[in-house]
Amino acid sequence: MALSDILPDILFYLFAALTLLCGVLVVANPFSRNPVTSAMFLVLTIISMAGLFVLLHAFFLAAVQIIVYAGAVIVLFLFVIMLLDLKEEQRRKIKLFGAVAGLVSVGVIMIISLKALRAARPGANLPAPQLEGGTNALGQLLFTQYVLPFEVVSILLLVAMVGVILLSKKDLK
Amino acid sequence: MNWSFIIFSVVKIAIVIGVVQGMVAYAVLAERKISAWIQDRVGPNRCAPPFVKAIPGLGPVLIRLGLFQPLADGLKFMLKEDFTPAGVRKVYFWLAPAIAVIPSMLVIAVIPFGSQLGHQQMVIANLNVGILYTFGIVSLGVYGIVLAGYAANSKYPFLGGIRSSAQMISYEISMGMSVIPVFLIVGNLNLNQIIGWQAQHGWLALYSPVSFIIFLVAAFAETNRLPFDLPEAETELVGGYHTEYSSMKFALFFLGEYSNMIASAGMMVTLFFGGWTLPFWGLDHPATTPVAGIAHILVFVVKMLLFMVLFIWVRWMFPRFRYDQLMDLGWRKFVPLALVNILVTAVVLWVMS
């Protein structure tokens, strides 16, 4: 049936367009400079990206994307934004240092993406991704082939956690 | 994908949403009746359309049970003035009730509410990562409340929103960790497979009671029910996050809360109490006849209703936590307990294999 053939393509363009559109609206919203609005568009960006993961059959990644980012990280963003003085935040001008740092990091990420795209050779028959589908294959790979990077990341998280505890407990000797 | 799949899915979605809405309306009635019984009152017992009284015998009984009260409540919500206070942030004020309702409806999509009717599986979406989908959607539920608190642009709703964001994130962690032993035991994330495993080996609440208790308490916290209704806390925060809401928008928050209760009751039945199976009368394998299929759905609904009664009963029996007690319980008691539970389950499984 024709519908099932073209549906993934339609959904891909839909989610890709939503991701890009909402991503732009996070940083440059012409209608509002309210940080809460930016955070909400970031949530939409993340949900659309999860949709892209689903189209790649990476269901686990999609679910984790939503649970971790949309469900926890950005709620904490909102928490902090709401406690700040919003009026002052809305008036603030863009600083030179921030603009330069932003442009540099965007440039670096773009170079990496372009290199990855060129390595992928559009049109070539790529092997099916190993991380497809459920959690079993992912767990196997994480604890065998990629165990070192996995543990390094966990140590990084542990350091961040200890840092937070030290910062929040000022009277800790 | 073909047309029959699409048509049957749409029919299932329509029926499930309709049934859940009806259950929400009558859950409110049950809440009022049970609270009345606990507090030695009568509860709603006289609202009825005029012709009902004329039915001999049955009519007065129906009226005394309050069966028409939900209709009157619904009508009242629709007819009341939809008042928008002057200082609110309009967009979020309109968006928040919708965001509060939608996740609670979406969660129900993966819960298997029966085995089979004919060739149709009685679940809207049989996902391989069913439980992760649930947690993803549940974690989005917090936005409705946070945005409601922000949109109202006044102090008490704001405090309610801030409280809810901290509370729901905290208890999501213990909730997520509490179910890991279940997956260690079953070895699968698919809810249908979990039910199949329980039909063979017995209910998971017996294998992992600690998981069940943590999940149950976290479910109370996630649905903002007493003793965890701090975002609402009418004695401290007037009405919490929905102080400034009226009419149908207020009703939508109620709808969201009760649908969340129904969804979490369904999740508990599915994960820990065998879903649509019963260990006797041959109800523990997928139905081959329509009668058995309907019996499975009834078994699931009855189990779910028992959990709904538990939700309601607890609300009227226990006082509210203080905020520091809430955080202490979540982070210092449940998170370590859940971690130990995972470790013990893993070790036991390793020794036994």
Q: What CATH architecture of chain A do you see?
A: Up-down Bundle
Unreliable runs of chain B: none
Q: Calculate the mean pLDDT score of chain B and round it.
A: 83
What CATH calls the topology of chain A is Four Helix Bundle (Hemerythrin (Met), subunit A)
What is the count of β-strands of chain B? 2
> What fraction of residues of chain B sit in β-strands?
under 5%
For this structure, the quaternary state is heterodimer
Class per helix and strand makeup of chain A: mainly alpha
Biggest sheet layout of chain A = none
Q: Order of helices and strands of chain B, N to C?
A: HHHHEEHHHHHHHHHHH
Question: Which key phrases capture this entry?
Answer:
heterodimer; A: 173 residues; mainly alpha; Four Helix Bundle (Hemerythrin (Met), subunit A); B: 353 residues; 2 domains; two-stranded antiparallel sheet; 15 helices
Describe the structure.
The complex is a heterodimer of chains A (173) and B (353). Chain A has one domain: Up-down Bundle (Four Helix Bundle (Hemerythrin (Met), subunit A)). Chain A is 77% helix and 0% strand. Chain A is globular and about 60 Å long. With 173 residues, chain A is mostly helical. Chain B is mainly alpha-helical and 353 residues long. Chain B folds into two domains: 45-79, no CATH class; 84-352, no CATH class. In chain B, a hairpin with a 2-residue loop joins strand 1 and strand 2. Chain B is globular.
